[in-house]
From TrEMBL:
<feature type="domain" description="FecR protein">
    <location>
        <begin position="113"/>
        <end position="207"/>
    </location>
</feature>
<dbReference type="InterPro" id="IPR012373">
    <property type="entry name" value="Ferrdict_sens_TM"/>
</dbReference>
<dbReference type="Pfam" id="PF16220">
    <property type="entry name" value="DUF4880"/>
</dbReference>
<dbReference type="Pfam" id="PF04773">
    <property type="entry name" value="FecR"/>
</dbReference>
<dbReference type="InterPro" id="IPR032623">
    <property type="entry name" value="FecR_N"/>
</dbReference>
<feature type="domain" description="FecR N-terminal">
    <location>
        <begin position="16"/>
        <end position="55"/>
    </location>
</feature>
<protein>
    <submittedName>
        <fullName>Anti-FecI sigma factor, FecR</fullName>
    </submittedName>
</protein>
<dbReference type="InterPro" id="IPR006860">
    <property type="entry name" value="FecR"/>
</dbReference>
<dbReference type="GO" id="GO:0016989">
    <property type="term" value="F:sigma factor antagonist activity"/>
</dbReference>
């Protein structure tokens, strides 16, 4: 089959291919979106040609932020160096509002701290507190005269608070889309999910205040975790961990379905992980180091009746053996 030249592909189709690439790179892909991508791919030969160009430039894309995928796709080869020097501008104007509406990418990439897919970052705040950001997390930090405030935009953070070194003892809070978590001298984690926030306390106590002013506050003590939405705090559950497994470079599987395990693992690698429906309920038990996710997949393949396939460079699919 003769491949289309770059100039023969509609720029709008190239834009769609770049958006799909950025979505897969984000690690925030739902099963329905994968089906949409597959339908888009077979809809027209130009779609396949545009995606083939994405595949061709995969290695180059690995060093670029997802928002700049379109810049790399559409810039002529002789202009590619100039495009890279103007990544921010090209990234902002190059992708459509469809891209931004799917995950708040602009807020994430302009955050004070933004951890790319597959990495974990530890930071020390001005007051001496320690914050560990999980893969794909974004965080803003605002220390004022009266308040030490973290704004969790996406992902999950683990916090070990320190005593305030300012003359005035300022409260330490974490704000999410669903409300505010106030630390009362503690170690805890906060995650931002699609429809709720989640807090786990590993020592001492936190106070949860949903964003709806009429919702009551709740105290959460060490060894407890809870979900909360803007209008309520849901049932409190016990936890056994001393700190989140991911903050220690490990992913834990406590008799969970393979499909759920792959969703968790997908947060720590680029691309997309999925499995055939007939093995989705296969149970996974164990503790797996996150340093090399390919080794995790290889160990699963060696111990279970499954095989690892690569339909596309960014896509790993687990099939029955």
């Amino acid at each position: 089959m003769q491949h289309k030249r770059h100039s023969d592909i509609d720029p709008r189709v190239l834009a769609q291919a770049a958006e799909w690439f950025a979505l897969f790179r984000s690690g925030q892909v739902h099963q329905s979106e994968t089906a949409e991508w597959q339908a888009w791919l077979v809809e027209h030969p130009d779609h396949q040609a545009a995606w083939a160009r994405v595949e061709f430039h995969i290695d180059r894309f690995k060093s670029l932020p997802p928002k700049t995928a379109l810049a790399a796709l559409t810039a002529p080869d002789l202009q590619r160096r100039r495009a890279i020097k103007n990544l921010v501008l090209l990234g902002v104007v190059g992708l459509s509002s469809w891209q931004f509406s799917r995950g708040g990418y602009w807020r994430e990439w302009t955050a004070d701290y933004h951890v790319v897919q597959g990495e974990i970052q530890t930071i020390t705040l001005a007051d001496g507190s320690t914050v560990i950001l999980d893969s794909g997390s974004a965080l803003n930090v605002e220390f004022g005269m009266d308040l030490r405030r973290l704004h969790l935009i996406s992902g999950e953070i683990y916090i070990e608070t320190a005593k305030d070194n300012a003359a005035k003892q300022r409260p330490f809070v974490v704000d999410t889309l669903d409300g505010r978590v106030r630390a009362l001298g503690t170690r805890f984690s906060v995650s931002q999910q699609t429809d709720f926030s989640q807090v786990a306390v590993f020592a001492d106590t936190v106070e949860i205040q949903p964003s709806n002013p009429s919702a009551p506050k709740h105290l959460l003590h060490g060894g407890q975790e809870a979900r909360f939405a803007s209008h309520r705090v849901e049932s409190i559950q016990p936890i056994q961990l001393d700190r989140p497994a991911w903050s220690q470079g490990v992913i834990e599987a406590d008799n969970i379905p393979l499909s759920e395990f792959l969703l968790q693992l997908n947060r720590y690698r680029k691309g997309y992980l999925t499995c055939a429906p007939e093995i989705a309920d296969m149970r996974i038990i164990g503790s797996f180091p996150l340093k090399d996710t390919d080794k995790i997949l290889a160990s699963l393949e060696a111990s279970l009746p499954i095989k690892i396939t690569n339909p596309l460079p960014l896509w790993v699919k687990v099939l029955p053996r």
